[in-house]
Amino acid sequence: MLTEKLEQLRTLFREMEQALIAYSGGIDSTLVAKIAYDILGDRALAVTAVSPSLLPEELEDAKIQAATIGISHQIVQTHEMSNPNYTSNPVNRCYFCKSELHDTLKPLALKLGYPYVVDGVNADDLHDYRPGIRAAKERGARSPLAEVNISKVEVRQLSQQLSLPWWDKPAQPCLSSRFPYGEEITVAKLQRVGRAEIYLRKFGLKNLRVRSDGDTARIELPPEQIKEFVLTTDLPTIVSAFQNLGFIYVTLDLEGYRSGKLNQVLNRETLIQV
């Protein structure tokens, strides 16, 4: 089945003939970039959007991965932080982020002669609350992974099969996802939470989040790592480091890390309205 889906992906790009990839450096869009380059060569272009919600370290990873693949890589600036519909952090914040992204990429693709803009949305994403998907579709973007029904697990399996060294790279959504809906997003807050996560990774932690709620930082780790973290880590040192970044309170989420956790406050009626 996986082999069949891989061939379907390749066929899809053969039919496109040219494609611009919305390339974040995450595992999904990197797999798309890899397949696109294998089939299209210099007729494929990866473009990474840079804004305060992207850590500099993530941009460097994207550059390294693109160079490893061999695909041409460009960087553009996006300006979602200038849009109050985004910075006010409503429940459909992601819609305005992806609107800005694709309003930037689509004209670039047309200017450079690429008839298609494609992204890394996978089949699982279609079953989650992802308002940004609608923004991309409204602007004509395609999602090859979703089109051939490739799940997140299969993305990793295919990446490993293709010998991509980052096949087990943790998911790293934009930093704005660290804030509860309704809390204003600022550049300073994004930098603060980003630095906090980089600090924790120095302890060998990979799958983690630092959720920011006002002056409180809430650390989320995989449930199976919580006990060891508490027993073996110098907690006062971590508290001091976070306070130096600007947080006042530092807490540990006892439930543990779970992707999309902040969406649990949403109810069906809210989602229908947006």
TrEMBL record:
The keyword Transferase applies. GO terms for molecular function: transferase activity. Keywords: Transferase. It holds the Pfam family NAD_synthase. Residues 17-80 form the NAD/GMP synthase domain. The keyword Coiled coil does not apply. InterPro entries: LarE, NAD/GMP_synthase, Ni-pincer_cofactor_biosynth, Rossmann-like_a/b/a_fold. NCBIfam families: ATP-dependent sacrificial sulfur transferase LarE. This is ATP-dependent sacrificial sulfur transferase LarE.
